[in-house]
Design brief:
Ribosomal Protein S5, domain 2; 4 helices; about 130 residues; alpha+beta; 5 strands; elongated; 5-stranded mixed beta sheet
């Protein structure tokens, strides 16, 4: 599959990064060399990863090969979803209104807040004692 023409895009979510290649094919998704249903064991993470394909209506006409690093499974699912949406946009720019109305082209900017000095966590302060 390395000599075929493909569409490439990068997706990020929290600390996860997914490099997505979209090949014209008969469907199927591979994440880190494994089938997607082995990687995304929960229904919600699998649905999140497949959302751009379903909203564009191309789940059976493209094959996805993705590499995901960093973060956890839900971060991977979000990163793969954004990568697929961006790759679909490169493949067919006419899909922009469909993907945008579903909210699939927006990078989710929510990340873990960093710990502050003098505090126990990002916002939790040590317990105050009056006496």
């Amino acid at each position: 599959m390395t000599d075929q023409q493909y569409y490439y895009a990068l997706g990020r979510r929290k600390s996860a990064v997914a490099k997505v290649r979209l090949y014209p094919g008969n469907g199927g998704m591979t994440i880190n060399g494994k089938p997607a249903d082995e990687v995304f064991t929960t229904v919600s993470s699998m649905a999140s990863a497949e959302a751009p394909l379903k909203s564009a209506g191309v789940e059976s006409s493209v094959q996805i090969v993705a590499t995901a690093k960093g973060g956890g499974i839900n971060g991977w699912a979000g990163a793969v979803s954004l990568g697929i949406a961006r790759a679909l946009l490169i493949m067919d720019p006419d899909l922009r209104p469909t993907l945008k109305s579903a909210g699939l082209l927006t990078r989710d900017a929510r990340v873990k807040e960093s710990k502050k000095y003098g505090l126990k966590r990002a916002r939790k302060a040590p317990q105050y004692t009056k006496r």
